[in-house]
Every structure is written in C-alpha cells, then in structure tokens.
Design a protein that fits this description.
It contains 17 helices and 13 strands. By secondary structure, the chain is α/β, with parallel strands linked by helices. Helix 1 packs across helix 6.
C-alpha cells in the first residue's frame, strides 16, 4: 500500500474542519481512516453549501465542496452515539484502531463511555486526540470554540488588516479558517509523534489540542515582538513589521509584491528601479533604518512603482533576482506553470459527481509516495462494509441495527 502510514487505522469522530483536516492528512499519508457520522445528517459541513459538487450533467449534487476539501481518503460509517448499541460499535472499532480523533466539547464523549479513560482500558495502545476550542484544562474548557472567534481572541485580527487611519482600516480575519487548519496540522504532527513514541514503548496517550493555543503559537515573530517589548504590534496592512520593503505596491495597472529580505536585495531593487540613491541614503541603507523610516521610504517607492506596469516590474525584478510576484486570483493560481508542473490540481472519481477536482497534498515522499485515489465519501457509504468486514456483523445483524436506529 502507498504512504508511510499504510499500517495505521484511524477512527475519526470529528466534524467540520480542524480535526477532519488531521484525519485527511493521515489518510493522505496512507492510513485507513474510518469517519463516524450521525445517521441522516452526517458531518455538519455536508450542509455548508453552495457551492455543491456537480454531476456529469453539470447539475448540483447535495455533496458540498466544503466537505470535500477535508474528507478525501476516508470511509463513512453512520453511528448513533446516543444509542447504547452505537456506543458499543465505537468501542469495538476503537479496540482495533491505532488513533482516535474527536472534537466534541469537553466531557461530551465521556457521557457515552467513550472518553479517553474509558477507551484506554479497552485499548492501551490507542492514541486519543482531542481537538477543542480551549483545551482540556483551564476556566474556558467548557466553552465551544470557532475559528473566527479564535482569530479574534488569539490576537491574529489585531495584527491583520489595514491601519485604522487609512481607508478600509480595521481588524480583519484571514481569508481562510487558519486557526482550524493550523490546529489540524499541529494535531497531525502530534499524532505522528505519539505513534513514534508508541513504537518504542507500546503505550498510547491522550493528545490535547486547542484552537486558542494554536492561534497564539502561530503568532510567531509578532508574538516574539510583543514578548520582547511589552508593546502590542499594530496592524500594518500588507507591510512586514520587521522588514522593509516587504509589501505590496500599486503599479501603473495593478499591484506587485516586493520582498527585499536583506540589504543586498534592496540594493538590487534600487538598480532595477533606477533609484540607486536610496540604497546609499543613511535613512534607508540598512534594514533597521528602513524600518525606522518606513513611512518616508514607502512614499518614495509608491511614486516609483506607479511609473511602470505590473508585467514590466515582475519581468525586471525577476531578471535581477529580486523576490517579487503578482497577486493571483485562484483561477490564476492554478494556471501558474509551477502549479501545473507540481500537479497541485488533482481529479478523483466520485460516486455521484464523476471526476471531482481537489488540491493535492503538499507532502512528497521519495520512498513511500502518496496516492490520492479515494474520494470524499457519501454519508454512510461504508457502514455495511466496515461492520461486516471489521466487526464480523452479518447482514441480518446490520439490518437490525439500522432498524433500531443505532446506525
């Protein structure tokens, strides 16, 4: 089987994005991922449309693009967790799994006998990964957490957006649910680390991932800037807090990104822009001075960039080895020659929608290459197969479970 985790089985009890993103990463890495969903409704994100996937005739299906973005490679099994028989099915599956993912509110699964302490008794090797808004400890642990509110609470929106005194100024969220996605990425790393630990010790453990923790962690240099000064950094729009010029500029017909990460690149830019005097100006000769005199330099560069088109700037800066780039629409992203060469757009055969386009995993392995062959599942598509093949249920028993509302 393809992928470095092809020997791993994951029981995914999660919904929407943060933990499902973890499950999809693990599926991309080759793990067998069994997604447990509510009978009839399934994962909440199945209803997050439009847009919907389209069938061969171009008509909308009821499969949302949102659900598809985070659930490829998984099997869907419907189980009613409030039903004792449904709870028993999850326990049986957990006993045969390596990893369990869940993002229920603190204590919810324990009410059904499906908390970490419960399942650890059944399977001490199980790695039980909980993803919540605020974690398993602290005064906020009972609160629900959503990406938008976490971006605000975690400080990201205080440093994202244009300056208050400029048109359009004010706090902005990221254009994607970055707190959810990054929590999913950290959870993926944690699961892989716990698997490595278990390989040495034979013992599983409980992983506690929180959206707020993650959002604060990925403040990165801005967080360090605050901790080292005690001063909350302001919003700077598309400018960088520690590097100048590292921002967007308006050209004669659009915009271009200039990224001069050191003094040598600034000097190269000045040659391209025919403004060599700026490179030797004491106010701008070093990055530290450019940061101090950001407003003056930006005003001068705005005038210089307005004289030429985006195409001209990109070509000239590229030829000089100065990092730069256009601001692409998503259509333009997938038309980039590099994106095409790397195969970032993939197609997978879907049972309702035919070939559906998705985005390839960025993880590349020379010895265990990843394969993207299993599409996002239909609700309950694999219930009978998993119950029959993994738990040994007969067709009659499966029919009885359906009739009782357990699956």
């Amino acid at each position: 089987m393809a992928g470095p985790l092809s020997h791993i089985r994951v029981l995914d009890l999660s919904r929407v994005l943060a933990a499902p993103w973890t499950g999809q990463n693990l599926a991309d890495l080759g793990a067998e991922v069994i997604k447990i969903e509510r009978p009839g409704k399934g994962d909440d994100s199945r209803a997050f449309g439009p847009p919907w996937l389209k069938d061969a005739s171009g008509a909308d299906t009821r499969e949302s693009a949102y659900f598809a973005c985070a659930n490829r490679g998984k099997k869907s099994v419907t189980v009613n967790l409030s039903d004792p028989q449904g709870q028993g099915i999850v326990r049986e599956l957990a006993a045969q799994s390596d990893v369990l993912l869940e993002n229920y509110k603190f204590g919810d699964l324990a009410r059904y006998g499906l908390g970490y302490e419960d399942l650890n008794k059944i399977n001490p090797r199980l790695i039980y990964c909980s993803v919540t808004g605020f974690g398993q400890t602290g005064p906020y642990r009972d609160r629900p957490g959503y990406d938008f509110m976490i971006q605000g609470m975690g400080g990201l929106m205080s440093i994202t957006g244009e300056r208050d005194e400029l048109p359009g100024g004010g706090p902005q969220k990221a254009g994607i649910p970055i707190a959810d996605i990054m929590t999913g990425m950290y959870a993926t790393i944690a699961v892989c680390a716990a698997l490595a630990h278990r390989a040495e010790t034979g013992i599983g453990q409980h992983l506690d991932l929180a959206l707020l923790d993650t959002q604060v962690a990925v403040l990165a240099n801005q967080g360090a800037n605050y901790l080292s000064t005690g001063v909350s950094p302001p919003r700077l729009g598309n400018a960088h807090p520690n590097i100048v010029p590292y921002q967007t500029f308006r050209t004669a017909d659009g915009d271009v990104i200039l990224a001069c990460g050191n003094d040598n690149l600034f000097r190269k830019f000045c040659e391209v822009g025919n403004c060599q005097q700026l490179a030797v100006d004491p106010r701008f000769a070093t990055n530290g001075k450019r940061v101090e005199n950001r407003a003056e330099l930006t005003a001068l560069l705005n005038d210089i960039f307005a004289r030429r088109s985006t195409r001209d700037w990109v070509a000239a800066l590229e030829a000089a080895g100065v990092p730069n780039g256009p601001i692409n629409t998503l259509e333009q992203v997938f038309e980039e020659p590099q994106a095409i060469a790397r195969g970032l757009r993939i197609e997978i055969e879907h049972p309702l929608a035919g070939k559906i386009p998705l985005i390839r995993s960025p993880m590349r392995f020379s010895g265990t290459p990843l394969e993207h062959e299993i599409p996002p599942p239909l609700l309950g598509q694999h219930s009978a197969d998993v119950l029959r093949g993994l738990l040994g249920r007969s067709d009659e028993e499966i029919a009885e479970l359906r009739a009782a509302g357990a699956i």
